[in-house]
What we know:
By secondary structure, the chain is α/β, with parallel strands linked by helices. It has helices at residues 64-67, 69-73, 79-114, 127-138, 159-165, 181-186, 224-231, 252-264, 269-278, 280-290, 297-308, 318-327, and strands at residues 19-30, 33-44, 50-54, 57-58, 149-153, 170-175, 192-196, 209-215, 235-246, 330-338, 342-349. It folds into two domains: 3-101, no CATH class; 102-351, 3-Layer(aba) Sandwich (Rossmann fold). A hairpin with a 3-residue loop joins strand 10 and strand 11.
Amino acid sequence: MQESLIRLLRCPVTNTALSGKFLKWSDKILDGEKISCIEEGILYATQDWYYPIIKGIPRLNVEAFIDHEDFFKDRAIDHENLKANLFKKYGALIKEVVRKNKRTKESFAKEWSVYNYDKDRTWDADNEGMIGRFLKETDETDESLKDKLIFDAGCGNGKLDILIAEKDATVIAMDLTDGFEEAYKRNHSSHVHFIQGDVQFPPVAFNSFDIVHCSGVLIHTNNAEFSFLRIEPCVKMNGKLSVWLYHPRKNMIHNLFNRIRKLTSKLPLNFQYYLYSVTILPVSYCIKRLKGNKQNPREMMVDILDWFTPEFRSEHEHAEVEGWFTKRNYKNVRITTTNVFGFNMTGEKYP
């Protein structure tokens, strides 16, 4: 983590500024220069809340103090009393966040554990295809991205964010899980910052970003419109919000699979992995090969896990999502991309 990132970070509960106690530093080559980065530390809010920096990444989930108890116990801070105080003041909130995030974190961690960073494409796209899709979704160009500050709210494996930084934009790349850790290790641009966080509790400064990009994330939360409402304040005035969601399909097999996943998504994740490996994957592989699709089996399995394992998966009509924008006074609201599974919509923020 670069120390300069702190100015953009906020407590995800109170949205107040954070201060840091830095415990370990390491050198990283960024933009061809050796830069001293924070490897381990603790970020403190103005009251009550505290968050770890682990492996160079700020862990800014509400429940981070629970997820990383071993880290805090080994760092000579009064963790037990601090934790007790948080539960005393915010017990109901913490329990609800833990409940809603537990399965989601586990399912996406399993999904990205299948992915091979060196060999696999992301959502059937190579690097050129990924950045091209991002530009179409956000209705931007290589030139228009220059000097923009972008919040990628749900960055997955993090590959896209490194590509965006090559366009001279600065990116805060956030995901609920740590699937982007490999991207962080490989990144050599000072314009990419990786953080762990929750779209329903964004740990960044409000009214700060030229573009907030949230692709395929809202649909995997317990309430897509509420999640939209939570990330929207991060867009600065005259900035742009871009979201990709599933839309309903009049397709018998699609709807049958959705009914099946309501049952199978509750099964243990390792069992699901092996179940899909011997049922859905072979059929999917044959059908896609016949259609000329060149995905390898791992890429296909990532797609399958993304559909069947998340606890939450919602579909939304275009007019419904347009209403989310217009209710919050966004202008120039439009669909920028659409395919068989979903669509991307953008809007510009006005007073």
